[in-house]
Design goal:
The complex is a heterodimer of chains A (249) and B (317). Chain A contains six helices and 13 strands. Chain A is an alpha/beta fold. In chain A, helix 2 packs across helix 5. Chain A starts with a strand and ends with a helix. By secondary structure, chain B is α/β, with parallel strands linked by helices. Chain B is built from eight helices and 16 strands. Classes of the chains: A alpha/beta (249), B alpha/beta (317). Chains A and B meet through helix 3, helix 4, strand 7, strand 8 and strand 9 of A and helix 3, helix 4, strand 5, strand 7 and strand 8 of B.
C-alpha cells in the first residue's frame, strides 16, 4: 500500500510568538520554524507501517514557500521515500490546501493520506476533513491508534467523552493525534541519505484549482493580559484568600 | 436570512454545549433553526423546541445518524443548509469532525473556534494556542462557523415552543462503521462545564498520586483535569486533558498542581476567572498567569489543603 503524508512548516511550538505592532499578523522573521508537531506523528505512523511490511511506499508532500521543503526533507530523513513540494507564494486557507492535496492524491493514488490533526499556527483543524470530503473518502480524525487491515482500517479516536473506535474503508484520510506514537529523530546517516531522495516540484497556481482565500484577516492582536497575581506563603493563607477575597469556595 | 445550528446530543438528551452554541448563533441572526439528526431522538427535538431562542426544530430520525459518523452526517447538513446563511456547531470533537466536510462540500472556507461574534460576517478567534487573537471577516456567501462553547453563556432552556418539522435523511456513502465508544463515567462534574477544576501535571509522579487531587475534587465538587505530560505519562485518561489539543476550560476556579505551564496547557485554562498554581519550582511559567501562587511541595501542600478545606464551615457548591 501507499501512504501520502502531508506536512506543514510552522513556528516551532516552543517559541513565544510575537504579534506585529501594526496588527497585520504574527512576526515570522528570524523565528525558529519546524514541522507542525502532529505532522511528525503522521510521518512516524507511515514509517512504522512500512517497517511492518504493510506499506510499500511513503510520499511526503508540503505546500508553501521555498523553505517549506525543509519539512519534506525531514520526512525523507525519517523514512519517507519521495517528496513533493507544491510552491505557493502566500498563505492558503485549509480549503485551498485540501483542493491542492486532492490534485496530488489524483496523481499519486495513495491508499491513505495521513495528516496532523491540527496545525499549531492557525489552529483551524480543517484540512484533513475537507480533503476527505472532496475526495468523498471516509475519515479517521484525532487518531490515537491505527490497525491497518486489507481493505479497511480500525481507528481509535480521541473524543471529548473518551475514546471511539471506527472501521473505515480504504482509501481513507487519517488525522493524527499526538498520542498516536512517539516520533523518532533522524539519524545523521539518514539525513545524508535523504539529500539524495527526490522532491518533485509543482506550482499551486498551475493545478487548475480555485485557491483564492475567502477569509479576510482584519486584525491580529495580543490577547488581554492577566493581571499579575500574588504568591501566598502558606496553604492556610491560600484557602483564606480563596474564601474571603476571591470568594470562589 | 436564518442560521442553522447542528445540535449535539446522545439521542436521549441534548449535550450541554449546544445551549452555549445557541447563544453564539443568536448573535449572528435571531432566526435560529436547529437540526437534530440522530436515531430515536424525538425527546431531544422536544428539548430543543422548548429553548426560547429557537424558532424551528428540524428532526431527522434515522439509524444512519445514530453515531454521528461525519461521512453520513455531513451530506445531510449540506442538503439542509441550502436555505441558510450560517451553519453553526460547537468547536469540540463533535463539530470539528463534521463541519469541515460540510464547508468543503459547499466550497466555503470555515471559520473555526470563534470566541466572539462581532457581526454576521466578522468573528474573533484565537490563533497560535491563544497567544494571538485574529479578527476575521468571511467573504463567502454562506458561513460555516464553529464556536468555542466556553466563550458563550448557555441559552435559557425552557419556555419556548418551537415547531418541530421532520426532514428526510440524505443518501449515505457506507464507507465507515461505528464499532464502540468508551466513555469515562464519573460522579464528578464534567470538565468542560465545571465551576471548579483541579488539574495535575507531571509533578504528580504517578496515577496513584492523583488520589490527592481526587479527594480535593470531591470536597470542592470540582472536575479533575490534567496536563498533556500527565496524560502522556499514563497517569490519567486523555479525556481529562486541558490544553491546546485537549479541552479548553473556563471555570471560576482553576487549580494547577505540579503543572509547569507549557504554552499548550495555558491555552486551555488561562481564561479561567481565578487561577491557583501549586508548584515547588518558583520559576515555573504557570505562576505568571496565577492569581494565587503557592511555592510548595505538592505532596505536603495537598493534604494540608484538604485539611484546611475541612475546617471551613461552608463550601460553595
Amino acid at each position: 500500500m501507499k501512504v501520502l503524508v502531508a506536512v506543514k512548516r510552522v513556528i516551532d511550538y516552543n517559541v513565544q510568538i510575537r504579534v506585529k505592532e501594526d496588527g497585520s499578523g504574527v512576526n515570522t522573521d528570524n523565528v525558529k520554524m519546524s514541522t507542525n508537531p502532529p505532522d511528525d506523528n503522521a510521518i512516524e505512523e507511515a514509517v512504522k507501517l512500512k517497517e511492518s511490511g504493510k506499506v510499500k511506499e511513503i510520499v511526503a508532500v508540503t505546500i508553501g514557500g521555498e523553505k517549506a521543503q525543509e519539512t519534506v526533507r525531514k520526512a525523507l530523513a525519517v523514512g519517507a521515500d519521495r517528496g513533493i513540494y507544491v510552491k505557493a507564494d502566500s498563505y492558503i486557507e485549509p480549503l485551498g490546501i485540501a483542493k491542492i492535496l486532492k490534485k496530488v492524491v489524483e496523481k499519486e493514488k495513495p491508499d491513505m493520506v495521513f495528516l496532523g490533526k491540527q496545525a499549531i499556527d492557525d489552529d483551524c483543524n480543517q484540512t484533513g476533513q475537507m480533503l476527505a470530503a472532496i475526495l468523498n473518502w471516509p475519515q479517521g480524525t484525532f487518531a490515537s491508534k491505527i490497525n491497518l487491515k486489507d481493505k479497511t482500517m480500525e481507528i481509535v479516536r480521541e473524543i471529548d467523552e473518551g475514546l471511539e473506535t471506527l472501521e473505515i474503508n480504504l482509501p481513507a484520510v487519517v488525522t493524527c493525534d499526538l498520542r498516536l506514537n512517539e516520533p523518532r529523530f533522524a539519524s545523521l546517516p539518514n539525513i545524508m541519505k535523504a539529500k539524495k531522495k527526490t522532491i518533485d516540484q509543482m506550482n499551486a497556481k498551475d493545478l487548475g484549482v480555485d485557491i483564492t482565500n475567502r477569509i479576510q484577516q482584519l486584525k491580529v492582536e495580543e490577547p488581554p493580559k492577566r493581571k499579575g497575581g500574588i504568591k501566598v506563603s502558606s496553604v492556610a493563607e491560600l484557602v483564606s484568600k480563596l474564601k474571603n477575597e476571591a470568594k470562589v469556595i | 436570512m436564518s442560521v442553522l445550528l447542528v445540535a449535539e446530543h446522545d439521542n436521549l438528551n441534548l449535550k450541554a454545549f449546544t445551549f452555549n452554541a445557541i447563544t453564539a448563533a443568536s448573535k449572528m441572526d435571531a432566526d435560529i433553526h436547529v437540526l437534530v439528526a440522530g436515531y430515536e431522538c424525538e425527546s431531544v427535538s422536544k428539548e430543543v423546541a422548548s429553548i426560547p431562542l429557537v424558532k424551528k426544530v428540524l428532526l431527522c430520525d434515522s439509524q444512519n445518524y445514530q453515531n454521528y459518523l461525519p461521512e453520513n452526517l455531513a451530506p445531510l447538513v449540506t442538503k439542509v443548509s441550502e436555505k441558510y446563511d450560517h451553519i453553526v456547531a460547537s468547536a469540540n470533537t463533535f463539530g470539528k469532525n463534521f463541519m469541515p466536510r460540510v464547508a468543503a462540500a459547499l466550497d466555503v472556507s470555515q471559520v473555526s473556534d470563534v470566541i466572539k461574534i462581532n457581526g454576521p460576517e466578522t468573528f474573533l478567534r484565537p490563533i497560535y494556542a491563544g497567544n494571538a487573537f485574529a479578527t476575521v471577516k468571511s467573504n463567502d456567501k454562506k458561513k460555516c462557523v464553529t464556536i468555542r462553547p466556553t466563550s458563550f453563556d448557555p441559552a435559557p432552556k425552557t419556555g419556548g415552543s418551537a415547531q418541530i418539522e421532520k426532514v428526510e435523511a440524505a443518501p449515505v456513502p457506507n464507507t465507515s462503521k461505528f464499532i464502540k465508544r468508551e466513555e469515562t463515567k464519573s460522579e464528578r462534574p464534567e470538565l468542560g462545564t465545571a465551576r471548579i477544576v483541579i488539574s495535575g501535571g507531571r509533578g504528580m509522579q504517578s496515577g496513584e498520586n492523583f488520589k490527592l487531587i481526587n479527594s480535593i475534587a470531591d470536597k470542592l465538587n470540582a472536575a479533575v483535569g490534567a496536563s498533556r505530560a500527565a496524560v502522556d505519562a499514563g497517569y490519567i485518561g486523555n479525556d481529562h486533558q486541558v490544553g491546546q489539543t485537549g479541552k479548553v476550560v473556563v471555570p471560576d476556579l482553576y487549580i494547577a498542581v505540579g503543572i509547569s505551564g507549557a504554552i499548550q496547557h495555558l491555552a486551555g485554562m488561562k481564561e479561567s476567572k481565578i487561577i491557583v498554581a501549586i508548584n515547588k519550582d518558583g520559576e515555573a511559567p504557570i505562576f505568571s498567569v496565577a492569581d494565587y501562587g503557592l511555592e510548595a511541595d505538592l505532596f505536603t501542600a495537598l493534604p494540608e489543603f484538604l485539611a484546611e478545606l475541612n475546617k471551613l464551615n461552608t463550601i460553595q457548591k
